[in-house]
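Inverse folding, one chain.
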């Protein structure tokens, strides 16, 4: 079981996690008015390495701007709060960090005006988010991915995840591991909480960012690694559900799961039904990168101690 570390940050100060509360009237509870991100920290060689924390902060910042919330924290302020909290909790193991900017206002009106944004941060111990050994069994969901002109899909908006939860729950209840979400036009968007890639004849295919999917930090990292280190072609183009069944490989990526290969989609075997060579090579590269062990990519990691 993941454990939550004893100290959190909320409303400008460090408090015990049991005291990190928000009022029941807060708009974030009633209307989902908040934006969050997730950052992984990996313990290696006597230091805790945060993977691309500035990129996560900048995406969080842009998401807040999309919602029009007046949050003005700088990266240097964010980094200090984060590193001080890590040290306060005396962390020396792999962790998952959850920063969130939310509407703390207790007004009943569902608007973003005068939303009184607050910033909070807590940390949990973290191992594997998904089982990686046997491959995932995906189900194409009946729930359609929200369009970007409904809610900004490039922001990790808290309210948006009701859409993801419906798809994930439907899949799990039907005996699958994860859901694939389609757009209104039938093209693939992403999994419920991960980006999706397919491989055909050595070419990697990814839904473009116009497909209502998240601009994932791990997605960006793997595209760069595939192009520069593996010399593979990456095509960002829309594809349909039927194309999923025809891929030689399918895999999911995200901060929590890093990279996880897919065994079946709608009970149809993908490729050989085993982890493919592209996913295997990318997993080796990203596993080294997050530990600050990949030559040429140490800029992605920031040590805490």
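Residues assigned per position:
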């Amino acid at each position: 079981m993941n454990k939550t570390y004893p100290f959190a940050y909320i409303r400008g100060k460090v408090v015990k996690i049991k005291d990190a509360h928000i009022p029941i009237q807060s708009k974030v509870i009633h209307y989902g008015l908040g934006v969050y991100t997730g950052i992984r920290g990996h313990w290696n060689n006597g230091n805790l390495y945060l993977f691309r924390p500035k990129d996560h902060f900048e995406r969080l910042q842009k998401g807040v701007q999309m919602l029009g919330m007046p949050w003005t924290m700088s990266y240097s302020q964010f980094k200090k709060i984060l590193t001080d909290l890590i040290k306060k909790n005396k962390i020396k193991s792999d962790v998952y960090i959850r920063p969130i900017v939310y509407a703390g206002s207790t007004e009943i009106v569902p608007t973003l005006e005068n939303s009184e944004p607050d910033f909070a941060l807590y940390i949990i111990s973290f191992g594997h988010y998904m089982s990686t050994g046997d491959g995932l069994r995906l189900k194409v969901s009946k729930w359609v991915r929200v369009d970007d002109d409904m809610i900004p899909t490039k922001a990790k908006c808290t309210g948006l995840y009701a859409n993801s939860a419906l798809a994930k729950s439907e899949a799990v209840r039907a005996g699958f591991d994860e859901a694939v979400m389609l757009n209104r036009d039938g093209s693939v968007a992403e999994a419920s909480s991960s980006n999706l890639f397919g491989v055909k004849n050595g070419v990697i295919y990814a839904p473009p960012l116009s497909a209502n999917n998240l601009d994932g930090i791990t997605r960006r990292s793997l595209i760069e690694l595939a192009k520069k280190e593996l010399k593979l072609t990456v095509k960002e183009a829309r594809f349909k559900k039927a194309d999923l069944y025809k891929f030689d490989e399918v895999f999911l990526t995200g901060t929590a799961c890093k990279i996880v290969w897919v065994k079946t989609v709608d009970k149809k075997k993908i490729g050989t039904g085993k982890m493919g060579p592209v996913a295997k090579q990318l997993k080796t590269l990203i596993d080294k990168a997050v530990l600050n062990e990949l030559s040429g990519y140490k800029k992605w990691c920031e040590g805490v101690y």
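The CA atoms of residues 148 and 212 lie 6 Å apart. The longest helix spans residues 53-67.
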